Amino acid sequence: MEKRLSAAAIWLLMVLYGASVAQGERTRDKMYKPILGASCFRRLNGTHQTGCSSTYSGSVGVLHRINVEADLEFLLAGPPSPPYAPMIPPHLFTRDNLMRLKMAGPQNISVVLLVNQTNNMQQFSHELNCPNQYSGINSSSETCDATNPAKNWNPWGTGLLHEDFPFPIFYIDDTDEIEKLMQCFEKFNNKDYKTHALRSLCAVEVKAFMSAAVNTEVCMRRTNFINNLGGSKYCDPLEGRNVYATVYPREPLLNDGIEVLRTDEKIIMVTCRLDTVSMFDGVGVGAMDSLMGLAVFTQVANLLRQLLPPQSSLPDSRRNILFVTFNGESYDYIGSQRFVYDMERLEFPPESAHSPPIAFDNIDFMLDIGTLDDIANIKLHALRGSDLAQKLLGQLNNYARASRYGFNLNIQSEISAHIPPTSAQSFLRRDPNFRALILNARPTNKYYHSIYDDAKNIDFTYANTSKDFTQLADVGDFKGLKADSLQMKVRNISSIVALALYQTLTGKEYTGTKVANPLLADELLYCFLESADCPLFKASSYPDSPTGLQLPPMRYISVLGGSQESSGWTYRVLGYLLSQPQPNIPKENCTKLPLHYFAGYNNVGECRLTTQNYSYALSPAFLIDGYDWSSGQYSTWTESTWSQFSARIFLRPSNVHQITTLSIGIVVLIVSFCLVYIISSRSEVLFEDLPASNAALFG
Fold first, then answer.
1. What is the pTM of this model?
2. What is the C-alpha to C-alpha distance for residues 314 and 282, in angstroms, rounded to an integer?
3. Given CA atoms 559, 560, 564, 570 in this order, what sign does their dihedral have?
4. Nearest-5° angle of CA 625, CA 627, CA 630?
5. Which one of 75, 180, 396, 510 is most buried, counting C-beta atoms within 10 A?
6. Residues 387 and 457 reside in one and the same domain
7. Residue range(s) defining the domain that contains residue 112
8. Mean pLDDT of all residues in 348-355
9. DSSP symbols for 185-217
């Protein structure tokens, strides 16, 4: 009987507990409404920390809408119920305004919300005026003058990406989420501002606490110390993968596996940047700042693979072209610095490639494809004049101006220290005499390194023709595209570069009519700007493999274990476009690299001989024991760890309400203590022993 009663009691307690939890969850759901968005986060280098962080338990601020710059004065001149969370549209998200909010301190400003209302926006770039200024060939004004818009590479830059803020900054893109915030503000906050302290107000809580602080040196020291005790990390080095491939397959290592440098091998390097960056986690596709260069890069690779004769037919059969996309270039050239470091030690390609090392003596010259903001105004840059620069410039313009192609472009040259912030700087920093040439357009991107450098910024419209994009096009076949479309502009400059390189390798001028296919540019831009579930990614994957997400791939370098979507898809695409079909090899025998089985354009499957591979994009600073973190020799960027990103709105009680509640609680506590004392001191009277007859009844 007692056991049954005990079980019943336990069951009743469980029911009551479950009901209380459910009721608590329903109450919480009524109190808080989540807000979807993306948060700013913290990165660190050898000397500083940049970015944002909330307090450990989350930062709370009263919503306040900023329509014009004058609205900020209310928040900066002793607001009545601080701290506040201003909702700022992009055109007011300026350096002056953000620094004023920063100076107001967390006492007045605890959260900043960037709302996606772009009506009055004319520019939005929070990179420096001179990106990577201190990690290139030199930091002098000859390379980039931050004070002179005509002599720097990002005239619209505010530098906010490299500032440290004492509050979280949260970006809200969705119109429904923005409307939710505005309705809450209008209903509770947007009236009689002087009485804010006397009533409940709509507030937001943002949780984005960053574990790391001070700089990379301190963070890595703490991380290594904690890890020795089996704990968690505070920060991770920025780390990714470079992707490379050659036009012609290289000879494998000897059977004994001994790495022998082949000094007679001569290689032309064609390079571009793979990554981009923005202030907010997971947002930003870098359409103009690096994707345009990647589109030209892939077009050049595909065109050369189909036009060039067999390697044995070249005047010099030892020549080859190496295509490399460098990752992490936005953060002091991480990928190219590591590439140079590995080449110096004869550790490129990596051991997994099973091919001989490549040294600097093997490099004939480097052609770096930089930012192509304005394809009609491209320059060929070089640090020093040379016969090579003049010869290549002449070849480029020969095809750019040829009436039979109708490209109608004129590529100019600039021989000076005014070198664009591209991967070539890592090579020139090692050796100013290195034969590096850079194709770069004059800067026109007002949204460089930002969330708004997207398809709209480059005026991209997906043609979606469902036609074969892998084959070359005839010069007069526009594939249904307008002559001034973005796809045709990419086709034109890609063809010019590829044909000039064709002439360099073969020693003959190209007189054919085949040029780059604008549909390949159409498909690649669609994949990286709008959806990874796209025809090009499917063609370069294994047949019937899972499709990509209906979102563009992340193109931020990330950290070890983070998203490497961009390099993964680039690896597949570059491998597919530079591979040689092997029609006589069946699927069951096409299983080991360098053989790879692709779905192909028609998704029927085809075996191809590939040359693509990965190399490391981790700064040498994290490999060198006792590295001087403040030396500036190598990139030292790390990313702070965090537990979660979240935002929610709720009704924050007034100060009077909170004081009243606290006062009542204190009174109840005092009364409770008094009652307990009185009852305890009178327990003999209040709880006297029962009579024996009654005790027997209850015994």
1. 0.90
2. 45
3. positive
4. 165
5. 396
6. yes
7. 29-220+645-657
8. 90
9. HHHHTSS-GGGGGGS-EEEEEEE--BS--S-HH
